[in-house]
UniProtKB/TrEMBL annotation:
Keyword terms, alphabetized: Glycosidase, Hydrolase
Protein name per its UniProtKB record: beta-N-acetylhexosaminidase
Superkingdom as given in the UniProt entry: Bacteria
CC per GO annotation: membrane
Broad enzyme group: hydrolase
Start and end residues of each Beta-hexosaminidase bacterial type N-terminal domain: 2-127
Swiss-Prot/TrEMBL catalytic activity: Hydrolysis of terminal non-reducing N-acetyl-D-hexosamine residues in N-acetyl-beta-D-hexosaminides
Enzyme Commission designation: 3.2.1.52
Recorded GO MF terms: beta-N-acetylhexosaminidase activity
PANTHER family: BETA-HEXOSAMINIDASE, BETA-N-ACETYLHEXOSAMINIDASE
Residues forming the catalytic site: E294 (proton donor)
Pfam families linked to this entry: Glyco_hydro_20, Glyco_hydro_20b
Length: 484
């Protein structure tokens, strides 16, 4: 199972078998919705009626458990008499049901009736996460992905207890979220993508649908509007945003660092005020990511003046600032989360230290470990390799608590695996780069340090293969894994 739970005890003489007369019992703790969705999945794959009823059942779910279990913790017991999952919150119960899905045979994930038996080896599990931020980022700017495609992505990443979806909504190649007060951002700025194909964008209804769907999986959306660099799509949409009031053409290549908002124009801040307000209004989560990376065309003194002004607008609309680690070169508002994307370069590490010295916390996305767009090896047909080749082992074998020198473990909020999509224009390609590396990052975010061991992880990862086959996931069969 991935992520490895904090404590698990096998019950060697016990086996739970789901039979056709099985029921799912719930109490009045918000378990009903979670039970209904588990029942729907298992009805499809087992063909059993699986009624959901008040009280105990063959499988009994409750979110009325002790507060000591925490926001995402749960306890699970499977034995010959049945399965019980207890949590203190509906979110914790969802995490426990996610575990139960992995304890069942892989064919339980099928969307058509399969042969049994439906057995779970007897076990007791007590579990809760190491970090509160366990994220994945999908770059929908370089290549646009539809609402349905993002929902499919959410389904898959939620199997590994991921709880944050960072959507990279704007960049040089495309603006992907509707802003009523600046309609050309999507009409024009959202019309293309890398390679020149038709781009796309999320209407407010689309974005609300994604936010709701993510929340059903207890995943919070973190929207990113990248500034002041990576802004060609916005600059191409509105001449007045440009220094000389001349809009550049739309851009469909993959260079970085050539664009910048005009730091000394008032209209820039009126623009950001509208954008951040409209995005914040649609975002239940408390983080709004303002980017900040690779502002190579913004004079550094101007960058240092810009970040506090942009950050102030994020805070004005009730959100905490999140940004790539470059923003830590200047002052940061309280509650800021700095996303570290460095490799071993000392400059990035110093910025991370500066962030923490200011009281910011960190989300770790080391590019040579957590970037899912990095090639696995020289011959990988997709992805980039500027941060090096990232094998499955390389992606797993690091410790978030000790990655950065002079940064206390207490400053780490968690981890996030970014998927940049310069070379990925469909879900099959996305799945090939995300699996099998994402489960390892998810484990680094969830499991205790003591559970992190490549040799045992590698065997547990191999067991995910049959599950991905049933789910139709186009995963990379890394040769170093002894796939089942
Ligand atoms: C934070 C960050 N900025 C750059 C960098 O990561 O590398 C990505 C590709 O790996 C690229 O797409 C992105 O624009």
């Amino acid at each position: 199972m991935i992520p490895q739970p904090i404590a698990q005890q096998a019950l060697p003489d016990e086996t739970f078998t789901l039979l056709s007369d099985a029921t799912i019992g719930v109490d009045d703790s918000g378990a009903q919705t979670i039970a209904d969705r588990l029942a729907a999945q298992l009805r499809r794959s087992t063909g059993f009626a699986l009624p959901v009823q008040q009280g105990t059942g063959t499988i009994t779910l409750s979110a009325n458990g002790p507060e000591s279990l925490g926001a995402e913790g749960y306890e699970l017991r499977a034995d010959a008499s049945g399965v019980t999952i207890t949590a203190a919150t509906a979110e914790g119960l969802f995490r426990g049901v996610t575990t139960l899905r992995q304890l069942l045979p892989a064919k339980a994930e099928a969307d058509s009736e399969q042969e049994g038996p439906w057995e779970v080896a007897g076990t007791t599990i007590s579990d809760s996460p190491r970090y509160g931020y366990r994220g994945v980022m999908l770059d929908v700017s370089r290549h646009f992905f539809t609402v349905e495609q993002v929902k499919h992505f959410i389904d898959l990443v939620s199997l590994y207890k991921i709880n944050r979806l960072h959507l990279h909504l704007s960049d040089d190649q495309g603006w992907r979220i509707q802003v009523d007060t600046w309609p050309r951002l999507t009409e024009h700025g959202g019309s293309q993508q890398v390679g020149g194909g038709a781009g796309g964008y999320y209407t407010k209804a689309d974005y609300a649908d994604l936010v709701r769907y993510a929340a059903e999986h207890y995943i919070t959306v973190v929207p990113e509007i990248d500034t002041p660099g990576h802004t060609n799509a916005a600059l191409a949409s509105y001449p007045e945003l440009n220094k000389g009031d001349q809009a550049p053409d739309l851009y469909t290549e993959t260079e970085v660092g050539f664009s910048s908002l005009t730091i000394d124009k008032d209209v820039t801040y009126a623009f950001l005020d509208d954008v951040f307000r409209e995005v914040a209004e649609q975002t239940p989560g408390d983080l709004l990511h303002l980017g900040g990376d690779e502002a190579h065309s913004t004079p550094h003194s101007e960058y240092l003046a810009f970040v506090p002004k942009a950050a102030e607008l994020v805070v004005k609309y009730g959100k905490r600032v999140m940004g790539w680690h470059e923003i830590a070169d200047g002052p940061l508002p309280a509650g800021t989360v700095v996303q570290y994307w460095g490799t071993e370069d000392p400059k990035a590490q110093v910025l991370a230290q500066q962030a923490v010295e200011q009281g910011a916390t960190l989300v770790l996305s080391p590019a040579n470990r957590a970037y899912l767009d990095m090639k696995y090896h020289e011959e990988t047909p997709l992805g980039l390799q500027w941060a090096g080749l990232v094998s499955v082992e390389q992606s797993y074998s690091w410790n978030p608590a000790t990655l950065l020198p002079n940064v206390p473990a207490s400053a780490i909020d968690g981890v996030e695996a970014p998927l940049w999509t310069e070379t990925l224009d469909d879900l099959e390609k996305v799945e090939f780069m995300v699996f099998p590396r994402l489960p390892g990052i998810a484990e680094l975010g969830w499991s205790p340090e003591s559970a992190l061991d490549w040799t045992t992880y590698r065997d547990r990862l191999a067991e995910q293969g049959p599950r991905w086959e049933v789910l139709g996931v186009n995963f990379y069969r890394a040769p170093e894994i002894d796939w089942r």
